[in-house]
Design goal:
Blueprint lengths: L1 H16 L2 H7 L12 E5 L7 E6 L4 E2 H4 L8 E2 L5 E6 L4 E9 L3 E6 L5 E4 L9 E7 L2 E9 L7 E7 L22 E5 L7 E6 L4 E2 H4 L8 E2 L5 E6 L4 E9 L3 E6 L5 E4 L9 E7 L2 E9 L7 E7 L3
Parallel strand pairs: 1-5, 12-16
Antiparallel strand pairs: 2-11, 3-4, 5-10, 6-9, 6-11, 7-8, 7-10, 13-22, 14-15, 16-21, 17-20, 17-22, 18-19, 18-21
């Protein structure tokens, strides 16, 4: 079904551009060809997230000419670099980006036959394409080099998370949006505990990100969850994680203090007990003890011992 959509989309696109030359240029990117670096079938809820692939960018096809009417840049091979077979019951977010020490670009032909191009949207000369309503089907992906006759070692990332940060990031950014939402709770809230489904892990080394604290594991730069807490008199606030794997916990409290834990809740689960929690925002990170690991986890928030 997808190939038919693509052929139809490409034909109509070429007619709109008028002229045989436009059609020939459009065919220089051959989504029917085998991919240079393999393929993968992923479905919504996949782990680890992001999924990563080592890619070498570049090629001989001028992307600015290959896709008429789109602002594409750089040079890539005619064959796709990677093919993603995506499965999702309801169209949702799919975020694809590249990280490299050099200037790379990105081209995607989505499951509907639409073209998407980017140069530097992920920062530091790295490209990113965010598809807000990605549907089932195949996604053909090209990683270009901005300059002709150049090839660069790169990493392709695929994610469902709305907020993910560069793997080179070494800090925790409590000002950033949270990966798994937020909640406002007040003393006496019900049901207690409040629970949130979280996927742990990231690329930030927590042992280096929080100087002066004994933190362990790896998390994203963005908080995983934000709690807005209201209480007339400072009192107990207990926050912990349960998972079948080894997770860690980092909290920046309403006074700006850092709190870290690894296994205090038992069975490799972390807990932080704040005996005098005051009004304000609590930024929460759920880490994986091992690098390059993501685990399904549940975050708990309670007033009870």
């Amino acid at each position: 079904m997808k190939n038919l959509k693509k052929v139809t989309a490409c034909f109509l696109f070429s007619v709109a551009m008028t002229g045989v030359g436009s059609f020939v240029h459009a065919q220089e990117l051959d989504y029917s060809a085998d991919s240079n670096f393999g393929s993968k079938s992923l479905s919504s809820g996949f782990l680890p997230d992001p999924y990563t692939v080592n890619i070498t960018s570049g090629g001989n096809v001028d992307l600015s000419k290959a896709i008429k009417g789109a602002d594409c840049k750089g040079y890539a091979t005619s064959n796709p670099d990677y093919k993603l077979q995506w499965g999702q019951d309801d169209p949702g977010l799919l975020k694809i980006w590249v990280e490299s020490d050099e200037d790379t670009t990105l081209v995607i032909n989505d499951s509907y036959g639409n073209w998407h191009c980017d140069d530097d949207s992920f920062g530091d000369l790295n490209p990113m394409v965010e598809l807000d309503a990605a549907g089932d089907g195949r996604y053909d992906i090209w990683v270009g080099s901005y300059e002709a006759n150049s090839n660069h070692s790169s990493v392709l990332h695929i994610s469902e998370l709305s907020n993910v940060s560069s793997s080179s990031s070494g800090s925790l950014d409590y000002s950033a949006d949270s990966n798994f939402g937020s909640v406002s709770l007040a003393a006496g809230f019900w049901p207690d505990p409040h629970t949130v489904s979280i996927t742990s892990g990231g690329n930030v080394d927590l042992s280096e990100a929080v100087p002066g604290e004994d933190c362990a594991g790896y998390a994203t730069s963005n908080p995983d969850f934000k709690l807005r807490w209201e209480q007339d008199d400072p009192g107990l606030l207990k926050i912990w994680v349960e998972s079948n794997e080894d997770t860690t916990l980092v909290i920046n409290d309403s006074n700006g203090n850092w709190h870290c834990d690894d296994d205090s809740y038992g069975d490799l689960n972390p807990v932080v007990e704040l005996n005098a929690a005051g009004d304000g925002r609590f930024d929460i990170w759920v880490g994986s003890y091992e690098a390059n690991s993501n685990y399904s986890s549940t975050l708990y928030i309670s007033e009870f011992e």
